[in-house]
Design a protein that fits this description.
The protein is 23% helix and 29% strand. The protein is α+β, with helices and mostly antiparallel strands and 218 residues long. About 3% of the residues have low confidence.
């Protein structure tokens, strides 16, 4: 299910550079119920082509300087760049606070944000998100990254249990519900509650996903 902004009832974050970062109709009760039940919601049309190009430029510029994202291998991002080094990403993180709060139905604050880079392969291991994330907003900003596979049936599993499952040779790497990242918008997901992964495929050129995380301050 996806929700698309209307021309009325919008919130935006526009600066003197003219880049319109967000203009979103806040989700209504039906969207919130769907989000809570499924653990995800695609929200489309949050920014224009100029903003998309600016995000792609920033992500591409930071790729060579991005820090290594932990152990290598085809199921990890190859590099990451944090919002402290990415002013436009930081602005996007702040601009989407009203959307995050409307989806969650409670007060949330921004915690961390980064660009995850996939230079040769876009696979990601089966996992739940970090404690600093009650809600994640995800968007592809560079290249083409495959759909995320969500596993609501695995709610409640610990990371150790998920690790054991994906080591099982009988585990179907293409299982789960595949959800594509919307263009010019975000995939909102309860990543701490709903396990997710991406089966992975070789990439002809690097891709990058912006991951924006929010949690309750209490």
């Amino acid at each position: 299910m996806a929700t698309t902004p209307r021309s009325d009832d919008t919130r935006d974050d526009t600066r003197s550079d003219g880049i319109r970062i967000a203009a979103a109709r806040l989700p209504g009760p039906a969207d919130r119920r769907a989000f809570t039940a499924r653990g995800c919601l695609a929200v489309e049309g949050l920014w224009d082509d100029r903003c998309a190009a600016a995000l792609a430029h920033e992500a591409g510029r930071l790729l060579p300087r991005g820090r290594r994202a932990g152990p290598g291998g085809p199921e990890r991002p190859s590099r990451q760049a944090v919002a402290a080094d990415a002013p436009l990403l930081a602005r996007l993180h702040r601009a989407l606070v009203p959307l995050a709060r409307a989806l969650a139905g409670r007060l949330l604050v921004p915690t961390c944000a980064w660009y995850n880079y996939y230079e040769q392969h876009d696979g990601i291991w089966l996992h739940i998100d970090i404690d600093a994330s009650e809600l994640a907003l995800l968007t592809t900003v560079l290249g083409e990254v495959g759909p995320l596979h969500l596993h609501p049936a695995l709610r409640g599993r610990t990371q150790d249990q998920l690790d054991a499952l994906q080591r099982d040779p009988d585990w179907d790497r293409h299982s789960g519900t595949a959800v594509r990242y919307p263009r010019r918008g975000v995939l909102a997901q309860l990543g701490r509650a709903v396990p997710h992964h991406r089966p992975g495929r070789p990439l002809a050129r690097p891709g990058a996903v912006a991951a924006l995380h929010y949690r309750s301050p209490f």
